[in-house]
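tool_call predict_complex ligand=adenosine-5'-triphosphate
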Amino acid sequence: MRTREQLNGVLAQGGGGTHQNRSERDSFAGMYAERLARLWAVENGLCFGRLDLAGESPHYIGRLGLSDDDQTRLLIDWRAPVAQPFYRATPAVPMGVTRRRHLQTKGRQVVGVDDDLLDLDRLTEADRATLNGEAALLAALDAKRTGRMRDIVATIQAEQDRVIRSDLNGVLVVQGGPGTGKTVVALHRAAYLLYTHRDRLARRGVLIVGPNLTFLRYIEQVLPSLGETDVLLSTVAEMYPGVTVTARDTAEAAAVKGSLRMVDVVARAVRDRQRLPRQPIDIKIGGYTLRLDQRTCEAARNRAARSNRPHNEARVVFVRHVLGALARQAAKALGRGMLEEADLDDLREDLRTEPAVKTALNRLWPYVTPQRLLIGLYASRERMSYAGLNAAEQDALYREVPRGGDHWTEADVPLLDEAAELLGEIDAGVLRAAALHAEEELAAARRAEEADRDSELTYAREVLELTGMSDIMDAERLAARHRGDDVHLTTAERAAADRTWAYGHIIVDEAQELSAMAWRMLMRKIPTRSMTIVGDIAQTGSVAGTASWGQVLDPYAGGRWREETLTVNYRTPVELMAVAADVLKLVGPGLKAPESVRETGEPPWARRISGPGELARVVGEEIVQDGRLVVIVPVSRAAELGRAITSSVPGAVAGPTAGALEAPVLVLTVTEAKGLEFDGVLVAEPGEILAESPRGASDLYVALTRATRRLGVLHTGDLPAVLSRCENS
Ligand SMILES: Nc1ncnc2c1ncn2[C@@H]1O[C@H](COP(=O)(O)OP(=O)(O)OP(=O)(O)O)[C@@H](O)[C@H]1O
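tool_result ok
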């Protein structure tokens, strides 16, 4: 109420006043509106706990802190240090707590109470061994899934709380099996860190990296309910401003592009654009000829290299040297050997605008955008070979110069970023001129109706894209921001548009999937190395992903990273986990499945089916009342099985489309289902999932661990032996 009044008061001041008044008013309005949004978001279950402490009045714990008009604390934010015993106190180490009470509320009414007595004198042995708020936890875990992740502030467990409140500095790795709460804990950690280190983090923002868009949609509502808005959720694919990923790499291409060898390859591809001419270049100007020989070019190139600037920014050095040499030649040709410096400068400027000189310079040291560099590299075996790629790698990467825009893949993004580092910025004036030129070409091509119109159009489009119209857009927006014109953008929005943004903290979820090149890109965005990395090396599906945290982190953090392990599975019931644990042995003999906390009494089952028609029938029968069902299918069968199911099961959706999370039945591949959970899971053709990737066993393990209740396996061929624990049905 008070916040709403404050907001209304600020808005009622109207639109007048000085510029400063206006911007102050806008920022107050923004602040109150944000607070109001937070208050609305936490309305549900606002207060969920009470701590009784020896000799003190009780503390009430809630989703955020509240005081009354006299500044008396009514509710303590769950992230505040005094709330910590709510999550950590045990009968053995009670932290001054005599009783912990979990409150279940509906709207503003208390509908249930669950007490843990921590007062040692009043406890039995059995009491001492209990979980933190067992009844409240089990009630939360039994709830039907809605398609969106919920926050767990009321039932955070002690091992999770240690991760959430771990120190901001350095790299923290959270390794844990499926369902151990890695994602939900990472989100609570983001909220905790922003609360505890507000000043440092709100300015630079927190970046959360997830595996795909469906996953980001699945988790995005958790953060506002935790009271946080300064967080940017992103996938690796979205991290190069101006580039939209629409294409998919083959496994071979993704493996090559993800490997750290590409650092060298990209560097050589840039050097390839600084080649010396094989023959001297003769430049005819007016009645005389100037000659640009290899020695001059080599000297110019060495100077540019010594400047230590990236390619596009070093071009001025190269150009200046070449123009100087040409100007001296021209002076000689004009019979004026002893020119003053100033006259030489004039001559140099004249030469700069000569078309023949421009052409020569563009050949020797062209402006190159990252996009153009990669397109040119993939389209030429000669260039790929110069850059150090062998024949098989060239086969994997080869791609003609694309005609339309649909060609960038996720694995290209870290390479574009790498190239951008080595190429540097193109002068904004040059870009603008190039874009204008490209537009003229495009218009000319449109006018021309001759036979090769198509190729001209393609060329012009290419120039448009390659000269980076999008880069110009970004350059201007960025400049505006540096001038301070863009006060309304949030930290997250500013960070998203700026490739070189350095974040205050980065959280990576499903981190096992990232390639070495993606790690390199991320590390550039976090020079302080303040990171939380959560994942499970047993679930790695990507061929460019990792099987060891040390391998990923040692190059960037030396030995200075710490690891916490989560050991309890809150999602998958014991019955289903037994099957998954058999598959885990195939992934790696030393790997250990997490301990499940629930039993459902429903055994997993397997059924032989005749084909897609029967699969669709079974899916129809398995629909969970008010719950959600997923059918996990092999990639190679996704289209066919998706069609069979959506055409006969009402409400079924195939693929990770925008509305997918609301659908009662969803058909997904393992990659698409990663990180998500459902009440019921049907795995179709497990044998094919096992066989279709070198990481097939990990994929099947991921598929089997998505369910909170029911699991069925449907197969046309033989059931893989590893699933023999499933009951025939
Ligand atoms: N302390 C808790 N209280 C209530 N629910 C919890 C708790 N911890 C985890 N959960 C629930 O358990 C489920 C699994 O959590 P989460 O998705 O974060 O696991 P994960 O480790 O990321 O799994 P995966 O590796 O399979 O993606 C979620 O529904 C989450 O809300």
